[in-house]
Amino acid sequence: MSSNELLYQKYRPMQLSQVVGHDKTVKEIESIFEKNSFPQVVCIEGITGTGKTTLARIIAKIINCQNKPSKSTCCDKCEVCNDINNENFAVGAHELNASMLDTESVRDIENLTNTQSFVTDKTIIMIDELQELAGNKKASKVLLKLLERKNSDLHFILMTMDSAKLDKAILNRCTSFKLKPVKSEVIADNLISILEKENFEVKTEEQANVIFAIAEASGGSVRQAISYLERFIEGNIQNEKELLEVLNITTTNTTNELCLKLIDKDPTIFKIELTQEVLDSIRRNISLLFQALIGVQLEVWQKNNIQGLLGYKKATKEGLLEILEVLDMTFKYPYLNREIINTILFRLFVKQESQKVILKEEVKVVPPQQESKPQEPVRRRREE
Prior knowledge:
This protein has 384 residues and is of the alpha/beta class. The chain has helices at 7-10, 23-34, 52-64, 79-85, 103-114, 137-148, 168-172, 184-197, 205-217, 222-235, 240-247, 252-264, 276-293, 300-305, 317-328, 338-345, 352-358, and strands at residues 41-46, 93-97, 123-128, 154-160, 175-179.
């Protein structure tokens, strides 16, 4: 590994046994390999950073590995494994991104499926971000025809963030695996394991709290958490205050305290240095609380994130919607500073008519008062 290698690349899982937070899915895939019955078309669904691409590459290596230690592992030493690990997709495996595909380029995939490799027995086509193809019906039809071809030497591994956007006919051809956001405690354990391998000692309870805050802030994305961890090491972050200053990350408790200030319309919120990242955390938890109030069934980790907000009597659906609408305004600005953020938040604290006065861009200049001439004393007329 080169010294310039990023941590998430250095600690990217190479085997199914190393995949973090998806034990049930891993066991299911291992069982399929053990039975020699891996399907021709699979679809892996999950949010960014949950491990879709990593899992797809591991599957591709196992299918074509030249020196398999077992049916559900790969050697990570042969030409096939090395090429995939080094992202050199030329020997039996091809990795594409649907956002770069049009109808003609989808047709070109057929040429890849007809290309016989002298090194591998099977051809594997990996297509990421498949939801980006949803708006192109012609390209989707061409892809569907390719998926319907029966060929035991051809495998498609499709990846998407949202299977609901996929063509139903395509989805029906797939064996699907869904990668849920990884639990914060699982991510935290993984981060601590990486720190141990990097010979970085967590010396205080405050630093341990920072690690868990990073895990929570990742939103279930292992890759995002490791990226945060790298900056944690580089910045030698010691406590939550430094975490906010360096990474703009707040702990769950801090985020929920800020949410309560907005719900209560507490003006002390204006004394706090808020950033886009902090506002995003607030918006996420307010959104989760709103979903809980309207009866949406939340995941356990989502409930844990808003544990300090659930049951708060002042939190109403109308009030939360108002907060979300105001926070949405922050997306209109390419750059946010404290003045802009405060101006936006003012909308929660003043009436609509008052806003028009307070938020005017023009500032009236009041001219200096002229010195008044001393008035002459009023003379009372003498009565004659």
